[in-house]
Design brief:
Blueprint (H helix, E strand, L loop, with lengths): L1 E5 L4 H12 L3 E6 L12 E4 L7 H11 L2 E6 L6 H6 L1 H22 L3 E7 L10 E2 L10 H20 L2 E7 L1 E3 L14 H10 L4 E4 L11 E2 L1 E3 H16 L6 E5 L5 E2 H12 L5 E4 L8 E4 L2 H7 L7 H8 L6
Helix pairs in contact: 1-7, 2-4, 4-5, 6-8, 8-10
Bound molecules: uridine-5'-diphosphate-4-deoxy-4-fluoro-alpha-D-galactose.
Uridine-5'-diphosphate-4-deoxy-4-fluoro-alpha-D-galactose binds next to helix 5, helix 6 and strand 9.
């Protein structure tokens, strides 16, 4: 029996695939290589666009050929600003791709899925600490596609017994292995690392937020911890009466933009340089996970804090 990892050549997916392989699981990676790299994948890999017209038929073949018993689904578009500019593409790829995947799983008799969801499903939260019972009200198409994905899984559960765990990632960063590091630099930590290395000041979006130092607070989660959460979810789904539903994946501890910038400068051994810019539209002041469901239902908790995340992102220390 094997585990199918969609998006397994991407930043997060490649960490999940490698960790599964390290513990002896048979893994099949599917990726369209639109943003993933072949160099990140070592085992079985099938090039496949989940949105293609023949995707369902090809997926059924892959599932039957490799005896797939569970799917970890990460293949998706994930840039919030891009999703605002191109909502149709986000709906087609993220929602349409999941539709093909679920059709194939139903036909091939595969009943377990771990879904890559996001704290973006919550939207502009009022409370700093977010639980899975916090109402979902996404404020951009990216978050909407993730919430619709969760609904699709719930509906498939009702219709044909699909068992699904949706991992709602908070702010993912760092690297578990240097060769799997995030190369996109679209989020705070890689952006600040790149700017600091170029000798440029970090740009801080607003310093008058309602937080202790005025800059936004987020819950940064090490990608190696996040990858372990996927394995814990796979294990939970293997127990027939195990938990299904959404789970926050964060540390429970927030860090401000200023603290992140300081951590990066210290790790690089350079003075902290900051340029304050306007606050970004729609940016909530503080978003921190309540990770207690992950602890209780998956037996998972984060091991790494901000210093380890930043140092691994620099390639200085491995997790
Ligand atoms: N920020 C800066 N300067 C920068 C970049 C970011 O000050 O150069 C700030 C942002 O304003 C925000 C924080 O750093 O307060 C983190 O910003 P990111 O863009 O890295 O992450 P977000 O919290 O905005 O978004 C993340 C994920 C999304 C997800 C969202 C909701 O990247 O995919 O969390 O959970 F949708």
């Amino acid at each position: 029996m094997s585990i199918l990892v969609t998006g397994g050549a991407g930043y997060i997916g490649s960490h999940v695939a490698r960790l599964l392989e390290e513990r002896g699981e048979a893994v099949v990676v599917i990726d369209d290589f639109s943003s993933g790299f072949r160099s990140r994948v070592s085992g079985q890999v099938v090039e496949l666009d989940l949105g293609a017209a023949d995707a369902t038929a090809r997926l059924i073949d892959v599932m039957q050929e490799h005896g797939v018993s569970a799917v970890v689904h990460l293949a998706a578009l994930k840039d919030v600003a891009e999703s605002v500019a191109e909502p149709e593409r986000y709906y087609r790829v993220n929602v349409g791709g999941l539709g093909h995947l679920l059709e194939a799983m139903r036909s091939a008799g595969v009943h377990q899925i771990v879904f890559s969801s996001s704290a973006a499903v919550y939207g502009a939260v009022q409370d700093v600490v977010v639980t899975e019972r916090t109402p979902c009200s996404p404020i951009n198409p990216y978050g909407q596609t993730k919430l619709i994905g969760e609904w699709m899984l719930g509906a498939a559960g009702d219709a044909w017994g699909l068992r699904a765990i949706s991992l709602r990632y908070f702010n993912v960063a760092g690297a578990g292995w240097d060769d799997l590091a995030d190369t996109a630099a679209t989020n705070l930590i890689p952006i600040v690392v790149a700017r600091t290395r170029r000798g440029e000041p970090a740009v801080v979006f607003g310093d008058h937020h309602d937080t202790p130092d005025g800059t936004c607070v987020r819950d940064y989660i090490h990608v190696a911890d996040l990858a372990r959460a996927h394995l814990a979810a796979v294990d939970t789904l293997r127990c027939d009466d195990g938990f299904v539903g959404p789970v926050n994946i964060g540390t429970g501890t927030g860090a401000s933009v200023r603290e992140v910038v300081t951590e990066v400068s210290e790790a690089l051994g350079v003075p902290t340089r900051i340029r304050i810019d306007d606050a970004r539209a729609g940016d909530p002041a503080a978003v921190v996970a309540d990770p207690s469901v992950a602890a209780e239902r998956l037996g998972w908790h984060a091991r790494h804090g901000l210093d380890a995340i930043v140092r691994s992102a620099l390639g200085v220390v491995r997790a």
